[in-house]
């Protein structure tokens, strides 16, 4: 199998920030001694260099479909292993210099895969949709006193939303198992000054009522109208309005 | 440079995000367009010879990508690849898939959702996973380190 080695090696040493770096002891393939190497974790690729200053990696371990486990070693303390699912896969044995480093590396490597990232992103996407949905439905229930006429791109304050404040309890006890019961250090959550650019503006999904049609001014009866505004006689009203329509129609035809 | 070849071959046999037979031209001078079975799996682009079962792989870290009609251009640091699709529509689907098959793209999405959820609820959704401290999920990651 050919790998675009040059590009991959370039990726290792280019200036994009690595996710983790440090010295680890790595057990050799043929030579079973542990060698101290400089490791750089970027995304789902674990590069190892002979020295920290080396320009090119000796090798790379693609961390996809692997598990990371602690392991016993006769010669090394703080040892762990990277294992793969496939048949006759190599086991990469490594050892850190202390307990904290070992734990930190095991944690980082076991979550480095693209697959894992994708799972987390999907889950957060789902959570965000839920949060937005909740805010939408509580916005609909709590009609604000001051009714704002329809404005494109209106911003809505989340002060009435049920997400923040005392209903945090409701959030953490949901069925999906998400538990956010750890208290936050933010006293009021986001209830103050939180402006949510309504992403349902103009969608007409029933949250905002349609604009009220402009009312014809009929206070006291206009001089043109022969009919008093309060008239209940439909035929008279019909006749009068009909005249206006006919006049407008003529006007329009003549302007063509 | 050594790499875990067996494991990559195994990966190349997993269900792909997208797979198709495309025309492919490599980066070397004199390379011509050849039919290849191209598979996009996580952030790797594998391509198989259609007559043999041999596979090569490119880690999907493209610097530039653009397309024109049904030709997809993917550029690495110094090398350019050309993929010939059957239609513009197929080309657009591929470029969409390639853009999303990037670790950086995933990372940016994660940071966006994390920030939004935190803004709307005051809670960090990564805490439940125990990964809220990891450098790769910090809002300012992806920026080059400050000069020393």
UniProtKB/TrEMBL annotation, chain A:
Its main location: other. It comes from the Eukaryota. It is found in: Early endosome; Recycling endosome; Golgi apparatus, trans-Golgi network; Cytoplasmic vesicle, Clathrin-coated vesicle. Keywords: Coiled coil, Cytoplasmic vesicle, Endosome, Golgi apparatus, Phosphoprotein. InterPro entries: Boi1/Boi2-like (IPR045188), PH-like_dom_sf (IPR011993), PH_domain (IPR001849). Pfam families: PH. Residues 17-114 form the PH domain. GO terms for cellular component: clathrin-coated vesicle; cytosol; early endosome; recycling endosome; trans-Golgi network. Residues 162-185, 201-233 are annotated as: Disordered. Residues 114-141 form a coiled coil. GO terms for biological process: endosome organization; receptor recycling; retrograde transport, endosome to Golgi. Plays a role in endocytic trafficking. Required for receptor recycling from endosomes, both to the trans-Golgi network and the plasma membrane. Belongs to the sesquipedalian family. This is Sesquipedalian. It comes from Cyprinus carpio.
UniProtKB/TrEMBL annotation, chain B:
Residues 1-103 form the PH domain. InterPro entries: Boi1/Boi2-like, PH-like_dom_sf, PH_domain. GO terms for cellular component: cytosol; early endosome; recycling endosome; trans-Golgi network. SUPFAM superfamilies: PH domain-like (SSF50729). One of its GO terms (biological process) is receptor recycling. It comes from the Eukaryota. This is Pleckstrin homology domain-containing family J member 1.
